[in-house]
Amino acid sequence: MVNCEPDSVNASELSAKKSDFTKMRGLSASQLVADMGPGWNLGNALESENNETAWGNPVTTKEMINTIAARGFKTLRVPVRWDDSYSDPSTYTIKTEFMNRVEEVVNYGLQNGMYVIINVHHNDLQSMVSTDTSVQKRVKDELTAIWKQVGNRFKSYGDMLILETINEPRFEEDWNGTTALYNCVNEYNEVSRAAIRSTGGNNTSRLIMMPTYAASSDSPKISTWKKLSEDDMIAVSVHAYLPFDFAFDAKGHSNWTESDYYDLNAVFLRLNSTFVKKGLPVVMGEFGATGKENVADREKFAKAYAKFAKKYHMSCIWWDNNLFGKGAEMFGIFNRSSLSFVYGGIADAIINVYKNNQDDDDDDDNAPLFKGSSSASNWGQAVTAPTSRYGGRLDPSTVKQGGYFYVEYSGTKDQVELIFQSLSGGNNWCKVTMSESGSINGHYFAKFSYDNCVKAFGNNFGELLDIIHVGATDKPITVYLLSYNQK
C-alpha cells in the first residue's frame, strides 16, 4: 500500500537536510541547463487550489520521487501556488507550514541527486499581465514579496535548485498578447529576478528561469523576450504542446507524421537561433501529448522532443498531471498511487535519447523545407519557405560551402526558379542560377550550388536571408520537394 501522508518533518530536520545541498559548482547557465537532461513535472499537486490533493491527486511522497529518479529523470519541476497559503494576504505572507511542505518536496528530489525547479504557478497574478500601471504595481509587489520569502528560505541551497519566476504569464486568457504585454512580462521577470538576488547567499548566482509571454515558443513572443539587467545566470523558459493538433487538441490527428516532425524541428531551430546561439540557454519546462489511444505515436513524439532538445543543449520536462486514458489533457505517464509507469515507453523514449551519446541516423540539417504538392504558373510562386529568422525550418547560418538547394518538380524541364528574399536590408529579390538538373522519381530535379547562391545574394545568409521561394517561369510547374543539403 502506498503511503498517502507526507513524510513527517520538523524545522530542525529541515535545517539538517539543507546542509547536504549547499554546493555551488561554478557552472555557467548553459553548462547547467545542458546537464539538467530529461525532466518530469509534478503536475496538479502543490499548485492545486487550497491544498495539495484538491485536484484529485494523492499527497506527494518521497517514494514517488524515488521512482521517478530511478527511471532516469534528472530534473524535477515542482509547480507551486503560493497565494492560497498566505497567512496575511495584505502582505503576501506565506504560511510557515506551507513553506516547510514545499521545502520537504524539494528535498525529495535533491536527495535523489536531481535538479529541482520551483516557481509561482496558478497564482491569480499569472493572468494579470497588463498595460494598467496600477495592476502592474500590485503584481510586482506580490512577486517581490513571494520571491524574497522563498529566496530567504532557500538561499543556502546549492545550484541543483533552480527558481522560475512565473508560470505562463499572460493577460487573462489571451494567449496571443501584444508587444506592450510582452514588455510587461519582461518587467515581471526582472522584479522577480531582483528580489531573488537581493536575498543573498547562493541566490546571488543561482540559475533563474524567466518565461516568454505565456511561456510560448512562437516567434513574436520569443523575439521580444529580453533581460532588463546584466545577469549571466538566466535561462529562457518556454512550453510547447506542439504540433497543437497532435499534442493538445483531443480531437486532432493521432498519428505522428513526418510533417509533425519537421514542424517540431522548426520550433527548436527558432529557439536555437533566437537564444541558444547567443549564449542564452533554454529550458522546455513543459511539453506533452494527450492520450488518443496512440501510445506508439506519443513515444515517437517524445523521442523527437528529446532529440531536438538534446541537440541544442536544452532540458525538456514532461508535463504529468496524473491523468490517463483518452481525451483532453491526458498527460499522465506515471501513476502516483501505484508507483508504476503506465506509459513507461514514453518515459524511456525521453530518457534514452539523453543517455545515448550517438547521433540518430536521420540528419535534420538535411530536412525538407517543403514536402508535398504545390503548383504555380506565369511567374508565380509555388513554394514560400521562411527561414528560421521568420519562424521557418532552415537556420540560414547553416548554409555553407559545399551545400546546395534541391528542388523536385514536374512540368517543363529547367523551367523552375529559386528566389532568395531579404526583409532585413539584404538583396530584396534575387534569382539563383541553376547548377545541375536532371530526372528522378518520375519528376525533374534542379540543384542550386552554394557558389551560385553567393553570386546571387552574397554570403551573409545568417543575418539577411529571410525567405526562400520556388517559382515558375511562364510555364506551369508543380513542386514536390525543397530541401537544403550540406555535404
From TrEMBL:
GO terms for cellular component: cell surface; extracellular region. It holds the Pfam family Cellulase. GO terms for biological process: cellulose catabolic process. Transmembrane segments: none annotated. Residues 370-480 form the Carbohydrate binding module domain. Residues 45-322 form the Glycoside hydrolase family domain. InterPro entries: CBM65_1 (IPR040877), GH (IPR017853), Glyco_hydro_5 (IPR001547), Glyco_hydro_5_CS (IPR018087), Glycosyl_hydrolase_5 (IPR050386). Keywords: Carbohydrate metabolism, Cellulose degradation, Glycosidase, Hydrolase, Polysaccharide degradation. GO terms for molecular function: beta-glucosidase activity. PANTHER family: ENDOGLUCANASE, PUTATIVE (AFU_ORTHOLOGUE AFUA_5G01830)-RELATED, GLUCAN ENDO-1,6-BETA-GLUCOSIDASE B. Belongs to the glycosyl hydrolase 5 (cellulase A) family. This is Endoglucanase. It comes from Lacrimispora algidixylanolytica. The lineage of its organism: Bacteria, Bacillati, Bacillota, Clostridia, Lachnospirales.
